[in-house]
C-alpha cells in the first residue's frame, strides 16, 4: 500500500484539545495544589539549613504578615482572572457578531489565552493552598511560616501581573481584523500544502461502473472533519474492492445517507456479498470522522470560507464596512494564488500493485475560485470598489495560473463578473474603470500582460 501521510499533519485529538479552554488551566490548578502541599514540607525540613545569604532574599515576616500577603495575592488574582475571562468572552462575542462565527475557533485555540488563564488560576490556587500551612504560635503548637513557599507565591504574583499586561496587548492585536485574516490565511495555506503533499500522482480517478456498485452510508451526522486514508485503503485491499468517497472534508453528512460507493476490483455485475459490505461499512465508520464544527485538519476550503465570511459580513447593511471586505479579498487573492500553484485534485490511494483502490475527493481550484468570488460578487455588486477588487483578484490569480483548467475557470469567472457589471447602475467613469480592469485580466490570461494594462486608472 502506498498511502502517504504528511508527518506534520495534526491529529484529530490534538486539534480538539487545542480548541478547548479548560485543559491547560485545569492542569495548572492540579499542579498548584500539589506544589502548595509539598513546598511547605520542604520549608519545614530545609529552611533552617539554608545559608544567611539565601534566606536574606526570602520572606521574613511573621504568620500574620504571611497570611496578609497570601490573602492579598489570592484575592487579587481571582479578580484579575474574572477580568481576563470577561475580556475573552467579550472578544469572542465581538468576533462572532462583527466578523464571522467561524472565527471563534481561532480565538479558542489561542495559546496566549490558555497560558494566561492557567498562570492566573495556578497562582490563585497555590496562594490559597499555602495559606492553610501558615500557623500562629499557640500553647499546643509553634509558629510556622513557610518562607520559601510565600516567596514563590510572591514571584508567581509578579509573573501574573506581567502576563496580564502581555495578554491585554495580545488581545488588542488579535481583535483587529487584519490579524484575524492573516492568522486564518496562514493556517489555510498550511492545510493546503499538507493536502497537496499527500497527492500520490497525477493518475485519473477510476470511473464508477453502472452496475455492481454498493452505497456505503454515514453512521453519524455532522461535518466531515477528516478521513483516515490508510484505514480506508486497508479496508479496500482486504475486501478486494475500490472505494470512492463522494463527500468533501467540510461537507455536512446525515446518518443513514450514502457518502461513498464501492465495487469489486475484478469487476462484474454480481456486486459484493453481504460480508464484504458489512466489513466495508465497519471500516468506513472508523475511517470517516464527523464533528459538530468544521476544522482545518483536511478541510482545504475552510480557511477560504472564513475569509469570505468576513467579506460578506462587512458588506451587510448592518455592518457596512467595504474597506474590511477589500482587505479580506486581498487575503483571498493571496490564498488563491498559492492554490494555483498546488495540485489540489482528489487524493488517489494505490495498492502495492499501483492500482487505484481509494479515492478521497478534495476541492479543486475552480471550486475554490467560485467560493471566493460568488458571494462577494453578489452582495457587493452595487459597490464599484468591491467589484473592482474582484477584477484585480482575477488578474492576480491569472498571473499565477499555469494550467489550462485554471485559466478556463478564471475566464468563466471573468464573464460572470462582467455580466454583474452590466446589470448595475454605474456611471460612465466607473464602467470605464471596470472595463480596463477586465482587459487587464484578459491580458494576464493570454500572456500579454503590460504595466499599462494592469495599472489602476
Work out the number of β strands.
8
How many helices? The count is 17
The main β sheet shows up as: 5 strands, mixed
Low-confidence stretches: 1-8
> Helix and strand string, N-terminal first?
HHHHHHHHEEHEEEHEHHEEHHHHH
Strand order in space, largest sheet: 1-5-3-8-7
Structural class label: alpha+beta
Helix content: 55-70%
**Global shape:** flat
Mean pLDDT: 88
Transmembrane segments: 21-42, 69-92, 112-131, 151-172
Pfam families: DUF2254
Protein name: DUF2254 domain-containing protein
Keywords: Membrane, Transmembrane, Transmembrane helix
Descriptive report:
Helix content is 61%, strand content 8%. It has 17 helices and eight strands. Among the domains are: 12-175, no CATH class; 301-343 and 365-454. The longest helix has 37 residues, at 63-99. It is α+β, with helices and mostly antiparallel strands and 457 residues long. The strands form two sheets. It has a five-stranded mixed beta sheet with strand order 1-5-3-8-7, with helices on one face. The chain has a three-stranded antiparallel beta sheet with strand order 4-2-6. It has helices at residues 12-18, 23-46, 52-55, 63-99, 104-108, 111-131, 147-174, 177-197, 229-239, 274-287, 300-314, 322-340, 365-379, 384-400, 404-422, 428-446, 451-454; strands spanning 214-217, 222-227, 241-245, 252-253, 258-264, 288-291, 347-350, 356-360. Strand 7 and strand 8 form a beta hairpin.
Amino acid at each position: 500500500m502506498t498511502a502517504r501521510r504528511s508527518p506534520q499533519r495534526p491529529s484529530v485529538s490534538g486539534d480538539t484539545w487545542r480548541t478547548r479552554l479548560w485543559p491547560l488551566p485545569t492542569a495548572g490548578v492540579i499542579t498548584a495544589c500539589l506544589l502548595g502541599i509539598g513546598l511547605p514540607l520542604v520549608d519545614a525540613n530545609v529552611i533552617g539549613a539554608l545559608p544567611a545569604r539565601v534566606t536574606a532574599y526570602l520572606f521574613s515576616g511573621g504568620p500574620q504578615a504571611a497570611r496578609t500577603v497570601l490573602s492579598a495575592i489570592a484575592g487579587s488574582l481571582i479578580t484579575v482572572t474574572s477580568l481576563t475571562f470577561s475580556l475573552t468572552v467579550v472578544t469572542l462575542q465581538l468576533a462572532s457578531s462583527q466578523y464571522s462565527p467561524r472565527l471563534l475557533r481561532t480565538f479558542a485555540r489561542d495559546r496566549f489565552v490558555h497560558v494566561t488563564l492557567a498562570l492566573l488560576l495556578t497562582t490563585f490556587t497555590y496562594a490559597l493552598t499555602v495559606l492553610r500551612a501558615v500557623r500562629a504560635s499557640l500553647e499546643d503548637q509553634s509558629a510556622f511560616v513557610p518562607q520559601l513557599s510565600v516567596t514563590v507565591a510572591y514571584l508567581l504574583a509578579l509573573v501574573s501581573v506581567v502576563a496580564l499586561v502581555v495578554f491585554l496587548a495580545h488581545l488588542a492585536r488579535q481583535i483587529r481584523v487584519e490579524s484575524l485574516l492573516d492568522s486564518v490565511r496562514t493556517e489555510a495555506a498550511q492545510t493546503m500544502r499538507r493536502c497537496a503533499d499527500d497527492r500520490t500522482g497525477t493518475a485519473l480517478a477510476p470511473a464508477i461502473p453502472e452496475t455492481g456498485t454498493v452505497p456505503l452510508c454515514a453512521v453519524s451526522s455532522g461535518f466531515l472533519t477528516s478521513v483516515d486514508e490508510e484505514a480506508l485503503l486497508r479496508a479496500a485491499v482486504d475486501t478486494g474492492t475500490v472505494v470512492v468517497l463522494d463527500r468533501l472534508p467540510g461537507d455536512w453528512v446525515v446518518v443513514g445517507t450514502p457518502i461513498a460507493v464501492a465495487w469489486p476490483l475484478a469487476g462484474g455485475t454480481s456486486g459484493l456479498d453481504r460480508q464484504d459490505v458489512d466489513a466495508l461499512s465497519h471500516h468506513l465508520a472508523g475511517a470517516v470522522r464527523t464533528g459538530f464544527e468544521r476544522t482545518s485538519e483536511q478541510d482545504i476550503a475552510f480557511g477560504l470560507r472564513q475569509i469570505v465570511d468576513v467579506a460578506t459580513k462587512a458588506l451587510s447593511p448592518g455592518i457596512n464596512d467595504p474597506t474590511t471586505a477589500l482587505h479580506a479579498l486581498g487575503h483571498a487573492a493571496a490564498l488563491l494564488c498559492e492554490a494555483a500553484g498546488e495540485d489540489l485534485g482528489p487524493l488517489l490511494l494505490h495498492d502495492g500493485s499501483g492500482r487505484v483502490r481509494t479515492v478521497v475527493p478534495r476541492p479543486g481550484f475552480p471550486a475554490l475560485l467560485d467560493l471566493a468570488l460568488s458571494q462577494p460578487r453578489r452582495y457587493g455588486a452595487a459597490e464599484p470598489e468591491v467589484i473592482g477588487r474582484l477584477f484585480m483578484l482575477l488578474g492576480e490569480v491569472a498571473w499565477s495560473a499555469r494550467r489550462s483548467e485554471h485559466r478556463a475557470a478564471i475566464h468563466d469567472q471573468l464573464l460572470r463578473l462582467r455580466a454583474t457589471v452590466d446589470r448595475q447602475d454605474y456611471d460612465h467613469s466607473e464602467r470605464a474603470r471596470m472595463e480596463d480592469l477586465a482587459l487587464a485580466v484578459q491580458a494576464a490570461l493570454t500572456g500579454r500582460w503590460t504595466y499599462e494594462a494592469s495599472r489602476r486608472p
